[in-house]
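Appendix B. Chain record.
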Amino acid sequence: MIITYELMLLLRVMPKPEVKQVLRRVADHIFAKGGIIRKLENLGTRDMPYRTGAHGVMYNKASYFLCEFNAPPSHIEVLLDEYGRDVDVIRRRIYKKNALEPIECTLHEELLPPPYRKDVQSMIAEARKHDKPTFRFNTGLNYYPFQK
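Structure tokens predicted for this chain:
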């Protein structure tokens, strides 16, 4: 079974040709384990929230990359181990991506006037639950006789 994952990579700041080589190594590891890369996104170089040490060096800035890929679940630990040994990778995290639930189109309901929409009717019914009960006249009078 193949599952979709997201890989968050923090790489040390380096020139573009070296970043390209690191990303090529990351992709080759995924391909070697039977994975398929769906999307690779560069989130830019920015300051890290706190100083982080990796491979004996402290880092304040990093290049952020997000990679979406499909791979068998049995190979995720191996990928994390390989990325942990790479000296150019400061941090790495792999998250299982949840499948998106299908969205039902309700355009025909949204185009109805507000009193005829189901959600508006349910809001009105909820508001009516909190109304105070009105006085029931059992005397045949059309007014409350004990009111001044």
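Further analysis of this model is presented in Appendix C.
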